[in-house]
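Good morning C.,

I know you're traveling, so I'll keep this short. The sequence:
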Amino acid sequence: MKLGRISLLLLSAATLAFLPAASAQEGSGKKKLAITKIAATDALAKRMAKQGVGLSLDSVLEALDSQVYDRMLNTRRFEILERSDADALAKESSAAGEAFAFNKADYILTIRVDSFNDRMEERKLASLGKTIRARTIELSAVAKITEVSTQRAIASTNFKVSKRDSENRSDNTTQRVGEGSDDLMIQAVSEMAGKIAARAADVVSPARVIGKRDNIVTINRNDQSGIKVGQVWEVFALGDELVDPDTGDKTREEVLVGKVKITRVTPQNSQGETMSDTGIDRGAIVRLASEPAGDEN
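The tokens, ready to paste straight into the viewer:
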């Protein structure tokens, strides 16, 4: 396999995307986010080493590391802090048995890959005298967001991605599986990074209505945030502050005031047409309700 190519491909893409996004962050009031180095759980690392595919896992981790950084940066929701500083501090704190306190950051994102499978499935067609092969890649990771000021985990989510090669290969084309698996791996890693970035943005900075003209609503989510043409989003007006009597946690009342179908996605924001509107206005919270018909992602 040629999985080593993944890191170079994604790192190049991340570098190109970094240039305009970084300048856009200067002088902003965005929340500061530190992303620690992505690693596999001990159990997964041992299993991969035992199976003799430790290098494949390392390639996945390096690729995911670059892609998550790229996706988080391009959500334009955060100011991403220098990676080397965050990694060094995390390692030092862990060795000392102390809590990870990164004073320059508002939030810390840690990601642990807990499952990875790259297998070839075979199906024999006796009538044709052929064996059809299809590669399947499965990836699972847990992403946790910690609020630095309180050292409290405000979100922890398990993400799973499964990609199956759409091209079935017979015996006389197996020499091209390596190149195909690179593409499949990139797809899996890219989808995982996109899910993590979208979740982090929604937790720290929920999507909002930033403009409304007649029946056209503008939402502060760009083409790197996972929003797609055809999606339906629900719009909620914020009401009174609510206090949970058992935990003391404070939230805001959310009242459904409409639905919007996305019609246009740009590098800056997205627009949609109202499907229902009983009070959509600027500042309202927007949450994904449904994907376009036939979209499985």
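Safe travels,
E.
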